[in-house]
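[Q] Does anyone have a clean structure-token version of this?
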Amino acid sequence: MRDEKQLKAIASKMVLKGKGILAADESTPTCTKRFDSISVESTFENRNKYRNMLFTSSNIEKYISGVILFDETFKQSTTCKNKIPFVEYLNSRGIIPGIKVDGGTQDLAGFPDEKITDGLDGLKKRLEEYYNMGARFAKWRAVITIGDDIPSDACIYSNAHGLARYAALCQNANIVPIVEPEVLMNGSHTIETCYEISKRTLNVVFEQLILNRVMLEGIVLKPNMIISGLDCDNQADIDKVADMTYRCLKENVPSEVAGIAFLSGGQSSDLATAHLQKMNEKYQDEMPWNLTFSYGRALQHDALNSWKGSNVSGGQEAFLLRANANSLATKGIAV
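[A] Here you go.
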């Protein structure tokens, strides 16, 4: 039975001012690509050491409210002598453990160049198992691509429905769903096009969430920022990104939503922080929800390159510097 009080409490804790969510849910192929960039072999043991380096950073709980884990990481442990399971370790530091539950994307039949997210089959049982193992929130990512004559209505509606069904199943299992409809940066589109597609997507997503009786106070929205396409000749500046992103959210996200934790979506670490900081600096006094971060690469990039497979103290120092910068950004403070 859905425990609405518990769901609201956890969702609120996930988006507390000054804290954000570490996305450490990279699949093994994605983690391998990142390890290749620093010439470290992507073995089970090395991936465990890397996650251990991040999670055991001193005072991580000052900046991080929750960590999204991949199935492999969910079952790993610290590398100290007594090997504390990561879920137990994170809980001991007041950090909420979460789990990525989608099965990745596949081609949307009949719609070239568009994707649909897998993973609804058997999800109810998997959520029950993860809850019993300690997960208190989950993540599901839907992907919307901007291109010639896309996204189609079919793509947006199919992905929105999948997000809503996932969210309803999560809440029935007393797990807070992170709802992630990502409009990709890839392409030469303008910031104005990103705004229109993101607006359209958010409208349909909330239509489906409400239709499926998802309690909005018990979700965290993880959207893209409104930015120019990566290959666009006219890259919008920080102020314009902040203004258009906030306007899009204010006009299309119900005030009941517990909070908003942005994805970085391929932005550089510095830009992801700067955009978040500017939005909070300009608009935090009028926001109906808190704006924070749920970054993967934008939180980990500096740490990964400092760690290089063995430099634990260097990796942790770089990670904490970036986590602190983003913590300040949630308050509108620039480093």
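[Q] Thanks! Anything notable?
[A] Residues 191-211 form the longest helix (21 residues).
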